[in-house]
Design a protein that fits this description.
The protein is mainly alpha-helical. It is about 85% helix and about 0% strand. The chain is built from ten helices and no strands. It is globular and about 50 Å long. The N and C termini lie far apart (about 55 Å).
């Protein structure tokens, strides 16, 4: 009994090691690192986001049952609305309502760092849930297999969604033009990426190889963005041209959330014609 509990504890601990590695790497990419206490608090807010999500999942699933969706329509609803929209929405709310209003949020790279931090907070708890559940129900080998697989798929996806979420928030705040479009994309784009990933997993119409193609392309794009932001940090340090141009209002947060959900519902209606 004691040995089993120890093994469970070790597997649970191992489930968050990939998260710590990615977060440390992203943190070190910032030439002017954020205060550790704020990065850590953002991470734990990501962990806490699981609570409202868990409360809303039965509601969203109930709506799906009432719609009596079948086949690909059901997989779409499961992927884009039940999973992706709920999860990315609460990460996004933490970024726009908390992180973007911090005094320390004073340069474009900060948006990427905080975006990854909040996303990995959620991913850490989700990974812990999966690994511990498989350990209890199916044994140590099954838990180890899930841990390894999720380390380079699901955890990587969450961190990449955080990068792109942060990037478009950065575009919205630190650029004068296209403010509302970039604010909308800061939620809509990661929701779509996450939704496509889940669609590949849930739908039998897709081969699992598409997951690796998707993640590979996104990883290349994310690395390019980080390199671009590092160059901007260097030039901005000497030119003094980095400043906030826009501030996100609560009314705009509500509007963008509703618009994203509206587009997802329209996508569901389009699915029904095929």
């Amino acid at each position: 009994m004691f040995g089993s509990q120890t093994s469970l504890a070790l597997h649970s601990l191992a489930s968050i090691i990939p998260v710590i590695i990615i977060l440390f790497y992203v943190y070190k990419r910032d030439l002017f690192p954020e205060p550790p206490r704020i990065v850590i608090s953002t991470f734990f807010l990501g962990v806490a986001s699981i609570l409202p999500i868990q409360l809303l999942i039965p509601v969203v699933e109930g709506i799906g049952e009432n719609l009596n969706l079948q086949g690909e329509d059901y997989y779409y609803y499961l992927s884009f609305i039940r999973a992706s929209f709920l999860e990315e929405l609460f990460k996004w709310l933490i970024l726009v309502l908390y992180c973007s209003k911090l005094n320390e949020f004073d340069e474009p790279m900060d948006a990427l760092v905080y975006g990854v931090a909040v996303s990995l907070g959620f991913a850490a708890f989700e990974n812990y849930q999966y690994v511990s559940s498989y350990f209890i129900n199916d044994g140590a080998e099954a838990a180890k297999s899930v841990l390894i697989h999720r380390s380079y798929t699901a955890i990587l996806l969450h961190s990449l969604c955080g990068v792109f979420m942060g990037f478009y928030i950065r575009e919205a705040i630190f650029r004068k033009e296209n403010y509302k479009l970039n604010l909308f994309l800061s939620l809509f784009y990661p929701v779509c990426l996450h939704g496509f990933y889940d669609e590949i997993i849930f739908s039998p119409s897709f081969s699992s190889y598409w997951i690796y193609i998707l993640l590979g392309l996104l990883l290349i794009r994310a690395m390019y963005l980080f390199q671009k932001e590092r160059k901007l940090q260097i030039s901005g340090l000497f030119e003094g041209n980095i400043k906030k141009h826009n501030y996100i209002r609560n009314s705009e947060v509500i509007l963008m959330s509703c618009l994203t959900l509206l587009f997802l519902v329209l996508g569901l209606q389009i699915f029904k014609f095929f």
